[in-house]
Each structure stands twice: as C-alpha cells, then as structure tokens.
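If you are new to this repository, start here. Below is one unmodified record pulled from the training split, so you can see the exact layout before writing a loader.
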Amino acid sequence: MARHPGGETVKISIHRLDTLFAQVIKQRDQWTCQRCGKKFVPGHAQGLDTSHIFGRRHKSVRWQPLNAKSLCFTCHRWWHENPTESGKWAEAFLGREKYACLVALKNEIVKDNVAHRKSQWDRLKALT
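And here is the target side for that same chain:
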C-alpha cells in the first residue's frame, strides 16, 4: 500500500479507480465514440479512450461521470489539439445546464484522501 502525502495509507489506488471509471464510462456510452459514433466491441475496445472534459488534476470531477465521455483515438486527439472547439463541443454535448453544473463541481476544492477515494469507489461500483 502506498502512503499519501498526508501520511494515511491509501487503500484504493488511483490506478484502480481510473480503471473502474473507464469501464463505467465505456459501458454508459455503449462502447461508442461520442463524437463520431464509431462502435467498438465491448471488452475489446483498444482505441476507445475515456476522455475527461476537465483534466484529471481536478479531483472534484476526476471520477465524475458527467466529466467524461468515450472518444476514439482520432477524436481524442482532436479534443486535445483543439481546446476552443472541444470546449464548445462539450457544452453542446452536455447542454448548457449540465455544463454549468460541471463547471461548478470542477471549482469545488476536494482533499484527495482515503475517504474521498473510498466514496468515489463505492459510487462507481454501484454503477457497474
């Protein structure tokens, strides 16, 4: 088990949470790129990425399904190479109200600790 900078033992690793999160998002999106519509075979989705609207450094929304979508490799590259257009696409994709809610969530300060990771794990497990 790794030690968190605060000293407590981290029982649920970021890697495990990210893996579970990616599974939840791909299942929710029915193994389909949300931008171009390309379909992938469930469980064999090499080339289908879980892409965050607001980057993973924002702990308040890192594992928030509203903050993620499935994108194929090509669309994921487009997402990162075109920040202005991708931001507009995200707002249109979610709708104004959901996008505003996501922005508010992103701006919340969250302490990344054992309790936070455990709550995220439990929430995501309930979605599988």
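Two things worth knowing about this chain: Residues 1-10 have pLDDT under 50 and may be disordered. The helical segments are 14-28, 73-81, 83-94, 96-106, 114-127.
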